């Protein structure tokens, strides 16, 4: 299977700040990848490099193209969505549909109209007259009508309530994503996307500190609610992180023998948030 994205030794500096520092990773088609990192970690710079919006050191191929030199060709197969609240407030819905239809070669008006027909969005309404929920529905209709091979989402649900965030991701998963399309998403609300992710990329201080498929996470990492009498024995396995909770100490392990961990307490798969905190703290130690 040909890799959709191949990054090798990406570097980018802003003055003395190294935004990307020897970043390498690959993304295969038909995956949903979470690019997760704290503020200032390099996420936005990485996305700009992928979209051909900034120069960089190293080698980068997206859909077999150089994103900086072949950006016009690349964007025919790429859709980029940031905060859903960025739609111009003055424009009417019908005007926005006309604009996207005229600017994106893979926009399918019939698909957009079919989705909007199931919503309360009126074609003659201005964006400023719509509720946040309607704006979300409008944005989804536009996104799903673009037959792109790569969808890049940068904090797409910022400012939406939990119901709208849930609807946004469920609609993407059920009505847009398939094995021919790839989604790359950055978000701070990792608990809301971890159930749809197939792969994780953790970035911190311009470096990739974790690159793994979710299947690999489940096989390599374990979180154990350690019984008080087994705390000392559990620490001999060098947990990546510990936290107190409900009368037990919860420890996160990597590549520890499962049979031994099961004797220490209740074992489970760590959440993406817990794994993120452990990996970032370990990388900074």
Describe this structure in words.
- The protein is of the alpha/beta class and 285 residues long.
- It folds into 2 domains: 5-205, Rossmann fold (3-Layer(aba) Sandwich), CATH 3.40.50.300; 216-284.
- Helix content is 32%, strand content 28%.
- The chain is built from 10 helices and 13 strands.
- It has helices at residues 43-50, 71-74, 93-103, 109-117, 132-144, 162-176, 214-220, 231-235, 258-262, 272-284, and strands at residues 5-14, 17-27, 32-36, 57-62, 78-81, 150-154, 182-186, 199-204, 207-213, 221-226, 241-245, 248-254, 265-268.
- The strands form 3 sheets. Strands 5-6-7-3-8-9 form a 6-stranded mixed sheet, with helices on both faces.
- Helix 4 (109-117) packs antiparallel against helix 5 and helix 5 (132-144) packs parallel to helix 6 (162-176).
- It is globular and about 65 Å long.
Shape: globular
Strand order of the largest sheet: 5-6-7-3-8-9
In terms of structural class, how would the helical and strand content be classed? alpha/beta
Kindly report the name of the CATH homologous superfamily of the largest domain: P-loop containing nucleotide triphosphate hydrolases
Given as residue ranges, the uncertain stretches (5+ residues, pLDDT < 50) are none
CATH topology of the largest domain: Rossmann fold
CATH architecture of the largest domain: 3-Layer(aba) Sandwich
Number of discrete domains: 2
The arrangement of helices and strands along the chain is EEEHEHEHHHEHEEEHEHEEHEH
Portion of residues in helices? 25-40%
CATH C-level name of the largest domain: Alpha Beta
- Give average pLDDT, whole number: 90
**Strand residue percentage:** 25-35%
C-alpha-based Rg, rounded: 21 Å
Q: Could you give the distance between the termini?
A: 37 Å
Summarize the main sheet: 6 strands, mixed
> Using DSSP, what is the number of strands?
13
Number of helices: 10
């Amino acid at each position: 299977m040909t890799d959709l994205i191949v990054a090798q030794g990406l570097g980018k500096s802003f003055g003395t700040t190294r935004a990307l520092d020897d970043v390498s990773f690959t993304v295969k088609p038909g995956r949903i990848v979470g690019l997760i990192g704290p503020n200032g970690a390099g996420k936005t710079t990485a996305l700009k490099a992928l979209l051909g919006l900034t120069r960089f050191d190293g080698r980068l191929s997206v859909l077999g193209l150089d994103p900086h030199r072949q950006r016009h060709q690349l964007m025919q197969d790429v859709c980029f969505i940031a905060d859903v609240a960025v739609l111009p407030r003055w424009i009417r819905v019908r005007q926005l549909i006309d604009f996207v239809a005229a600017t994106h070669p893979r926009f399918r008006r019939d698909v957009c109209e079919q989705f909007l027909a199931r919503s309360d969005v009126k074609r003659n309404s201005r964006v400023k007259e719509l509720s946040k929920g309607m704006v979300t529905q409008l944005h989804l209709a536009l996104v799903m009508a673009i037959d792109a091979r790569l969808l890049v989402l940068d904090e797409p649900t910022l400012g939406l309530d939990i119901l709208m965030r849930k609807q946004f991701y469920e609609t993407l998963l059920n009505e847009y994503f398939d094995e021919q399309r790839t989604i790359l998403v950055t978000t701070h609300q990792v608990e809301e996307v971890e159930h749809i992710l197939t792969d994780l990329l953790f970035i911190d201080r311009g470096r990739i500190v974790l690159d793994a498929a979710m299947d690999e996470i489940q096989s390599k990492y374990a979180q154990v609610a350690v019984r008080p009498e087994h705390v000392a024995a559990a620490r001999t396995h060098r947990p990546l992180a510990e936290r107190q909770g409900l009368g037990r100490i919860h420890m996160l392990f990597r590549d520890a023998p499962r049979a031994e961990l099961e004797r220490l307490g209740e074992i489970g798969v760590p959440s993406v948030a817990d794994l993120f905190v452990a990996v970032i703290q370990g990388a900074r130690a």
